[in-house]
Amino acid sequence: MKLPIYLTICFFASCSSLTIISPGINSNHRLNKLTDVKFNEAAFYGSTFYQANAFFINHQNIYEILNDPNNIVEKNIKEKFEKNIKNNDVILIAEFCFDKDKFNSSILDFDQYNFKLNNTSFSTNLEVFYLYSAKKKGTSYAIEQPLLVYDKPPNQKNIIKTSFEFIACSRSILNFKNLKLSEGSNKFEIITPRSSQIFFDFNIKNGIFQPFQDEGADLKIGISPYPKN
């Protein structure tokens, strides 16, 4: 088994621009966020930490993403979702990270979110809980890396834990079946149960997803193998 390649985490000018990295997803997959997270969403999920991100997923990365050891999801539900993915489907991920004290709370309502791509609702959705290791900074947290990673060879079948502190996230892996993307700009909309709307966009050129370039980045993103020595 090959070890996944991770990009080092970097911080941008705004908290909402934090780049999240995990197997099958790198910074080139991130969608451009057009709206800030609404206050009532952050307040609902806790004051310690809240952020929303979205990613465009290439089909060749689906296996890595669905079989990430950090996913908390029933195996049969995951396998059913994976079997129904066709080559002409569009796959996006909406990720919401929130106060870990809310992780086991009955108030979580991510299953009630609606998602639209170019004003078309998703066909199927696999909701998984995902855990990142975190470092506490005063009264808040900063995400570092996935909580569980494969060990280095020759023990790569073992899974190791990267931290005792963690941030909980919900990932909605969305399948827009047989949807033809627009040449140029495409709009992705998230509608929450509190009627908040979070908008993203991305560009398609000659049928190929164009990575979003954040001109306001404070630091460059470097590529390195993980786990680190």
Task: Outline the structure in words.
- The chain has 229 residues and is mainly beta.
- The protein has one domain.
- Helices cover 9% and strands 39% of the residues.
- Strands 2, 5, 6, 12, 13 and 14 form a 6-stranded antiparallel β-sheet that branches. Strands 3-4-11-7-8 form a 5-stranded antiparallel β-sheet.
- It starts with a strand and ends with a strand.
- The N terminus and C terminus are likely disordered.
How far is it from the N-terminal to the C-terminal residue, by CA? 18 Å
Mean pLDDT equals 81
**Percentage of residues in DSSP E strands:** 35-45%
The H/E string reads EEHEHHEEEEEEEEEEEE
Would you report the number of β strands? 15
Number of domains: 1
Protein name: Lipoprotein
Organism: Leptospira biflexa serovar Patoc (strain Patoc 1 / ATCC 23582 / Paris)
Secondary structure: elements and pairs:
Layout: E1 5-7, E2 32-33, H1 39-44, E3 50-57, H2 62-66, H3 75-83, E4 90-98, E5 114-117, E6 120-121, E7 124-137, E8 140-146, E9 148-150, E10 159-161, E11 166-176, E12 184-191, E13 197-205, E14 208-210, E15 223-225
Please sum up the structure shown.
This is Lipoprotein. It is built from three helices and 15 strands. The chain has 229 residues and is mostly beta strands.
